[in-house]
Amino acid sequence: MPLDLDGTLLRAFAETARRSGVRRAADALGRTQPAVSQQLRRLEDLVGRPLLVRSSSGVSLTREGELFLPYAERILALGREALSQVRDAAKPKGYRVGVIEELATEAYLRAVLARADALEPKVAILFVVDSWRIASEGFDRGDLDLVLSGPIPQITPRRRGAVRLAWAHSPGFDVQQRPLPIALSAAPCPWRDVLLDVLGRAGIVWRTAIEGGGLAAMWSAVKAGAALAAVIPATAPPDLSIIEASSAGLPDAPTIDIALHQQASPGLDEALDSIASALWDALLEDVLWT
């Protein structure tokens, strides 16, 4: 008749051998000492050999016990590994995706998630929405698997495109006032530099009305009439007025680069490639490219 080694009995034996005592093993297992002693006797009966020498000072392994212990530990480890593999296989693999605030609209994120839901095997996406600087630093540290942002210095993007910005303000804002109040992203930001270069070459006298503080703070200042902003038309709040630069005496708003960066993986990661494609394809639908 085949013999089956009960994991509960093996665990009692391994803990007793590891801790050199039945009482200490019982404490570690959350069982009573008599219960653990009974399990040890059952295991010895099953094996047909004494595995432990009991004395007033504790327990020690017999020669058979020393031979049996590595096998018991391997069986227990294999059991844990088997459970872990099966449980992990049922969980969707997680990916951290950085998206800059200017692009992370509800419509865009929904479009990405709709594409991701169709992937097999299933994946879980954690969006990290922040500024270009925070996204770039997260990618450099390896904290983010993908980043959709402006270009990151010294890193070749997986995809790259350009989008034309537009000037936007609240109704009633005077675009002729000088110095012209401007909303700016906090430095460092590649788009900030491009914007200031355009204003400088056009001879526009300007001042900073709001700087940094996140996109929500910037939108609040612009809606309140405190500043003019250069925006991506497709992602700007609907209650802002998009203006024609020439009719307002302004230079054309600059064209900015948008880049998709993907971490290099040691092997083929089809899921990561698919998420990257979902990010870019959704962007093509929701953002007006030049």
UniProtKB/TrEMBL annotation:
InterPro entries: LTTR, LysR_HTH_N, LysR_subst-bd, WH-like_DNA-bd_sf, WH_DNA-bd_sf
UniProt similarity note: Belongs to the LysR transcriptional regulatory family.
Record carries keyword Transit peptide: no
Key words, A-Z: DNA-binding, Transcription, Transcription regulation
Taxon lineage: Bacteria, Pseudomonadati, Pseudomonadota, Alphaproteobacteria, Sphingomonadales
The keyword Transcription regulation is annotated on this UniProt entry: yes
Name listed for the protein in its UniProt record: Transcriptional regulator, LysR family
Species for this entry: uncultured Sphingomonas sp
Ranges where the HTH lysR-type domain occurs: 1-62
GO molecular function: DNA binding; DNA-binding transcription factor activity
One Pfam entry name: HTH_1
Domain of life where this protein originates: Bacteria
SUPFAM superfamilies: Periplasmic binding protein-like II, Winged helix' DNA-binding domain
